[in-house]
Design a protein that fits this description.
Layout: E1 6-8, E2 15-18, H1 19-26, E3 31-34, H2 37-42, H3 47-61, E4 65-72, E5 75-78, H4 82-90, E6 95-97, H5 102-107, E7 112-114, H6 116-126, E8 130-132, H7 143-146, H8 151-158, E9 162-165, H9 174-183, E10 188-191, E11 210-212, H10 215-227, E12 234-237, H11 248-264, H12 272-283, H13 287-314
Parallel strand pairs: 2-5, 3-4, 3-8, 6-7, 8-9, 9-12, 10-11, 10-12
Antiparallel strand pairs: 1-2, 4-5, 4-7
Helix pairs in contact: 3-4, 3-13, 6-8, 10-13, 11-12
Length: 316
């Protein structure tokens, strides 16, 4: 049983807003969307629940309302209680839902967590313009053979949501990911840096398109982009805090080893990322998990600040 109060969104019969989220949106207060793949596939229990709740608390402390998103009982739930997050974290066989999966999951009333792409869609349906995650998906290494390219990139090209992240996941081909984002017309912003971050490290060796130094700059760019009718999101690359950054040589060595193991075990498709993250945690004796937690928490703070700036600009 859950005590969460939900009200149907006027925007879609398949979206249910937590009462707190709906009240905040109606009042024009800042709201930040959060995904749940990190709860079901990205971290082990209980670190997944602890991180999800910590991120929500950080967003609240910064003056915004968190809207953690999942799918169950034939609806996209925007906003979850602590009890619901706990339940989801311990539910077996949860589907990792992206854009293509949404209609099937809803029609069959499956329980699913939401990827970056699905969370962006849900956020847009709910009227939320800022979304915080750890890292986006992108072009996988060896994609010239496998054609393994995340749907997150296409979603960034078509859905009007600001995505605050620590770059792409370090297991990906970051250079090719940035090339695809350029082709798709997605602005890639480095938050207080000229460099594009690489999840566990602050510098991927690639530059961001533009540097921004304040939440107000991000909000202004988004407003102008959408006012011009330029559909699609913005990607804000927010580097992991300096004291949480992993040694680049060590983490790249671990990534190479994890990729070899995945290939040997013929891990493909949606299973690749969770497998590699688990392998990295094992190979780094838990350091990669600690870094993951820290970067997500810092993204939450910046995301809440961006959401606040965006809400304030709407009232000017």
């Amino acid at each position: 049983m859950t005590t969460t109060l939900l009200t149907s969104s006027a925007l879609s019969p398949y979206v249910q807003l937590h009462e707190e989220v709906q009240e905040a949106l109606s009042a024009g207060r800042p709201v930040v969307a959060l995904e749940t793949t990190i709860v079901t596939h990205g971290m082990p229990y209980p670190a997944n629940v602890e991180t999800a709740l910590s991120v929500e608390n950080i967003i609240r402390s910064a003056g915004a309302i968190p809207a953690t998103i999942c799918i169950k009982d034939g609806a996209i739930h925007v906003g979850m209680s602590r009890h619901e997050i706990e339940d989801l974290a311990q539910t077996k066989d949860v589907i990792k839902a992206s854009r293509r999966d949404l209609p099937v999951v809803l029609a069959n009333r499956y329980t699913a967590s939401t990827t970056v792409a699905a969370t962006m869609i849900a956020a847009r349906l709910a009227g939320i313009s800022v979304f915080v995650t750890g890292g986006i998906g992108g072009v996988h290494r060896g994609a010239e053979r496998t054609m393994d390219i995340s749907a997150d990139l296409q979603e960034l090209a078509k859905t009007d949501v600001i995505v605050v992240c620590a770059g792409t996941k370090a297991i990906l081909d970051i250079g090719l990911t940035l090339e695809v984002l350029e082709t798709l017309g997605v602005p890639v912003l480095g938050y207080q840096t000229e460099q594009f971050p690489a999840f566990y490290t602050r510098d991927s060796g690639h530059k961001a398109n533009f540097r921004v130094d304040t939440p107000q700059q991000v909000a202004s760019i988004a407003r102008i982009k959408w006012d011009l009718g330029l559909t699609g999101g913005l990607l804000v690359g927010n580097p992991i805090p300096m004291d949480a950054e992993l040694d680049p040589e060590r983490i790249n060595q671990a990534i190479h080893q994890a990729l070899q193991t995945a290939e040997a075990q013929k891990i493909t498709g949606k299973e690749v990322t969770p497998f590699l993250l688990a392998e990295l945690e094992r190979l780094t004796a838990g350091e990669s998990l600690q870094a993951n937690v820290r970067l997500v928490e810092y993204n939450a703070l910046v995301g809440a600040q961006v959401a606040t700036a965006l809400a304030e600009s709407a009232h000017q």
